[in-house]
Amino acid sequence: MCIATIYFDDGSHRDKVMSDVVQIEAERDGFLLVTLFGEEKFIKGKLKSVDFLKEHSVIIQKKS
């Protein structure tokens, strides 16, 4: 099983949005994140990068 941490990136730094994410659903203007424990959160932004080898992270570029 692959569990990820989601971060917002505004170009100058990263902020952690959510940990233990096991599902990411692409929506019209963002992403629905679901954790291992069933917690859900919707975030607006666009996908910037995914790294499951080194740090199991997904970077979302924050929409202004």
Structural account:
This is RNA-binding protein. The chain is 0% helix and 67% strand. It has 64 residues and is mainly β. The protein has one domain. Strands 1-2-3-4-5 form a 5-stranded mixed β-barrel. The mean pLDDT is 92.
Set down the secondary structure blueprint:
Blueprint: E1 4-9, E2 14-26, E3 30-35, E4 40-51, E5 57-62
Parallel strand pairs: 1-5
Antiparallel strand pairs: 1-2, 2-3, 3-4, 4-5
Compact description:
InterPro entries: CooT. This protein is an all-beta fold. It has no helices and 5 strands.
Shape: globular
Please report the distance between the alpha carbons of the first and last residues: 33 Å
Q: What series of H and E elements makes up the topology?
A: EEEEE
Main β sheet profile: 5 strands, mixed, barrel
> Within the largest sheet, what's the order of strands?
1-2-3-4-5
Number of strands: 5
- Nearest-integer average pLDDT: 92
Q: Which regions are unreliable across 5 or more consecutive residues at pLDDT < 50?
A: none
Number of helices, counting only DSSP H or I runs of 4 residues or more = 0
The overall number of domains is: 1
* Helix-residue proportion: under 10%
Coarse structural class:
mainly beta
Proportion of residues in extended strands: over 45%
How large is the radius of gyration? 11 Å
Organism: marine sediment metagenome
Protein name: RNA-binding protein
InterPro entries: CooT (IPR019300)
Pfam families: CooT
